[in-house]
């Protein structure tokens, strides 16, 4: 490889990285800095909901889910079960959200929690999200 080719290849890589990171789109201002796993997930959910203009709908969905987790032992056991595989967790989320008018952002978020084995954190994430909405 010639000296010129080596020098320009580094510039092309550097330029493409800069270009990729600069194109962030519209940013969302989060009202409160939260920490920990629940804080990161709540902030991500808040940001996604804000970009889709569905903050109140997502909050209402989470309140319904919080009530369901409190009242239904089976739902709570499902969320806390570390043995379930990804497929079973995703199916469980589908069952929980089935028949309810759940916002797409909320459903996608619950699927992400299922994929990342974070369903047990759901009650803490709901509390963190509510603190962002307060």
TrEMBL record:
GO cellular component, as recorded: membrane
> Which GO terms label this protein's molecular function in UniProt?
proton-transporting ATP synthase activity, rotational mechanism
Keyword Metal-binding in annotation: no
Q: From which domain of life does this come? A: Eukaryota
Q: Where in the cell is it found?
A: Membrane
InterPro entries for this protein: ATP_synth_OSCP/delta_N_sf, ATPase_OSCP/dsu
Which UniProt keywords are given for this protein, alphabetically ordered?
A: ATP synthesis, Hydrogen ion transport, Ion transport, Membrane, Transport
NCBIfam families tied to this protein: ATP_synt_delta
Similarity comment? Belongs to the ATPase delta chain family.
Please identify the protein, giving its name as recorded.
ATP synthase subunit 5, mitochondrial
State the organism of origin: Dispira parvispora
């Amino acid at each position: 490889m010639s000296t010129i080719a080596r020098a320009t290849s580094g510039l092309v890589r550097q330029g493409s990285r800069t270009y990729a990171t600069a194109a962030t789109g519209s940013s969302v201002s989060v009202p409160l800095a939260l920490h920990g796993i629940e804080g990161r997930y709540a902030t991500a959910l808040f940001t996604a909901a804000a970009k889709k203009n569905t903050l109140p709908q997502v909050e209402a969905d989470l309140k319904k889910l919080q009530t369901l987790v409190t009242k239904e032992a089976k739902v709570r056991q499902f969320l806390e079960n570390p043995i379930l595989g990804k497929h079973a967790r995703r199916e469980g989320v589908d069952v929980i959200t089935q028949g309810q008018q759940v916002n797409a952002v909320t459903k996608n978020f619950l699927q992400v929690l299922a994929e990342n084995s974070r369903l047990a954190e759901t009650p803490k994430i709901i509390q963190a999200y509510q603190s962002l909405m307060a």
